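Posted in: Structural Biology > Protein-Ligand Complexes

Title: Requesting predicted complex, alpha-D-glucopyranose in pocket

I'd be grateful if someone could produce the 3D structure tokens for the following input. Sequence and ligand are given below.
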Amino acid sequence: MREDKHSPWWKKAVVYQVYPKSFQDSNSDGIGDLNGIMQRLDYLEELGIDAIWLSPVCKSPQDDNGYDISDYQDIDPMFGTLEDMERLIQEAQKHHIKIIIDLVLNHSSDEHFWFQEAKKSRENPYHDYYVWRDGEEGTPPNDMRACFGGSAWEWVPQLGQYYFHQFAVKQPDLNWENPKVRAEIYDMIRWWMEKGVGGFRLDVIDQIAKEPDRKITNNGSRLHEFIQELSQETFQKGDLITVGEAWGATTDLAKLYSNPDGSEFSMVFQFEHIGLDQQQGKEKWDLAPLPFKKLKKIMEHWQKELFQCGWNSLFWNNHDLPRIVSRWGDDKEYRTESAKMLAVLLHGMQGTPYIYQGEELGMTNVRYDIKDYRDIETWNVYRERTEQGYETSDIMASIYAKSRDNARTPMQWDDSANAGFTKGEPWIKVNPNYQEINAKRQLRDPDSVFHCYKALIALRKKHDVFAEGDFELLLPEDPAFFAYVRTYLGERLYVICNFYGKTEACPLTEAWENMQLLYSNYPKGTDLNTYQPFEARMYLSTNDIVLVE
Ligand code: GLC
Ligand code: CA
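-- Reply #1 --
Done. Output follows.
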């Protein structure tokens, strides 16, 4: 891809997130693995993506599915070996795909060598790699709560100290104040860069500069100092795509994170349009309803604020979020139409789109018996609420809507047993709808959700207005339409989506008949102003006369 300081390659790129445990099993142990991903590179090349963001595959006791790393420079045997990883990087390259790895730098596993040493004594050279406070058993330093429930402080009797953990007890927070910790991390990142990875996703990066004494978790006062040093010592030595996960990002902070001068990252994941609160404590855990007009406003705000002074990541889904078609779409009657509409809406915007595995098939949420859930967060919520006396049916309703396992069910490849994911017993049950929703079927059907995503990816590469155009929201107060126009050098890209399941007349009165219909999720109708349920169209107008010197 073209390298040009003013227009980095990732501005036209589309990234595909692989959750390795659930993507493809190659050795029938029921767990997806690196060799499985290699078997599916043809499929990903067909879709047209430029990079795979691989959720963590490093050595880990898997208490939080790999977001608890015990060795940053080795692969968990469950996924394969370091040689397999090196081969995946090479093989993917042959398919024009880069590998982005997931760096979990806020915390390690308690089984990491550093922590094993750190808890031996206060004098141990690794002690200060983590965040400790003196105290007395039963009286933690303060009342901070961990994201997965319970106190954020864990007592270690042999030291007479507590350690700080923002996530599970088995995920002790690393002490970024310690320059030795930072230096070790940079060495490790450069080692991965030498292996040829194409970029990094940085887990909960806005939480690294914690200040527990002031009860500060994200956006600590030294955060951007740490990130700039990290970037300078590592990423800036390569031509990488980097994306930080930042639940607490505002547009002002995002301008720092994604400063076009390259001093921090390429972009961040912010979650305002998802409408979840960053603290996932118990009362805030439920999926909060987000009003439609507010969604429009939030999207508009991010598109406008970052224009030419930052860069957006565009996503509906990831391994922590329920399936978008089950949330904003209609996963029954209009599953195909609404999945495509949501794709069109997002892929017309400025930024780098991320597709989460199975989203390109319109995969849906699940409703399992509690015993069939696997996620640590889901189980913690279930236990806490049961203890607090909630009705089981209420707890389950929350879990159906919000559980991270909605995204973690096996990828649906075909209609054979276990959806072609494994020949063994899958680690988590397959969504029972795999006979209807699967990749094999959709590859053959030109009207499938898969082919919609493929078309949208190709359009982004073909027309510069996708990457470069400005953004204007149309019909901001309209209760049914989400519409906007992007303009770049006389090209105007109109994106018009009927967001709901009722036929609607569109109040816009442009001369659609003079424009090129780039994409539509319905056969071209005669009445240009009537939109079917979840109908989405993209028009391109090149009528304006522009003088380019
Ligand atoms: C991020 C990850 C999530 C993980 C958490 C702790 O939010 O996306 O899966 O549980 O960080 O590492
Ligand atoms: Ca396996």
